[in-house]
Amino acid sequence: MQWQDHAIILGVKRLGETSVVAEVMTRTRGRHMGLVRSGRSRAMQPVLQAGNLVEVTWRARLHEHLGEFRMEPVTLRAARLMETATAVYGVQAMAALLRLLPERDPHPHLYDALDVILENLQNPADAGELFVRFELAVLNDLGFGLDLTECAATGVREDLAFVSPKSGRAVCRAAGMPWADKMLALPPFLSTGAVVAADRESLSAAFRLTGFFLHRHVYEPRGIEIAAARNGFMQAALKAVAVASLDDDLASPGLAVKG
């Protein structure tokens, strides 16, 4: 058996003296493993770095076998991804999210989203919002998607301010205020049609929102912990958004500098 596809490197594990088992995300074959002979060679090590885009050919005698990868580099972005904390942690955290999905189960929109996000992780101010949307997409593919389009109580689509922790549905401010202390906050940038960017407060609320449902529906039932990389990414992203906001304030024409 044989197939060929573009793939994003998620990670590698050593196997023997010279080979590795590579884990990749492909558009049509989902998350896939394969043996890379001489994967620890000087020529292959730069290629087999997390985040790189490669063209992969997989061969095996039977479909259920591990099989062997042959790889050619397409976009080597790993070096760029090492430049910021958000990118370093982001690659690891998204790989951990994809490992929650069944191996070899195609999720083309997640592959496309991963490819786009990896191209933008070097911009720390945008990385947090992109990552949260990726978590929401993974939750949806796992069967636990949130409905943030309209109020669960009234059906209105305006002024959505909360998310019910029971149903995962949005609730408008008027209907949710009596139970605000029991609700999860819905960050404005996640509302349908929103054009506002995430700030530190709304991004922190978004991380709490996705983290709550990931823990309840995925990690707790499986008896596993949320990847440590997520916390590292969260702290780096929140810091980056706070710094970007401060820079914007300092650059504001209305801010007078006294001598």
Automatic annotation (TrEMBL):
DNA replication/recombination mediator RecO N-terminal domain mapped to chain residues: 1-70
Superkingdom in the source lineage: Bacteria
Keyword DNA damage: yes
GO cellular component terms given for this protein: bacterial nucleoid
Record Pfam families: RecO_C (PF02565), RecO_N (PF11967)
InterPro entries, A to Z: ARFGAP/RecO, DNA_rep/recomb_RecO_N, NA-bd_OB-fold, RecO, RecO_C
Keyword DNA damage (UniProt): yes
Signal peptide (residue range): none
Keywords assigned by UniProt, alphabetized: DNA damage, DNA recombination, DNA repair
SUPFAM superfamilies: ArfGap/RecO-like zinc finger, Nucleic acid-binding proteins
Gene Ontology BP annotations: DNA recombination; double-strand break repair
Annotated family: Belongs to the RecO family.
NCBIfam families attached to this UniProt entry: reco (TIGR00613)
Function: Involved in DNA repair and RecF pathway recombination.
Protein name: DNA repair protein RecO
Gene from which the chain derives: recO
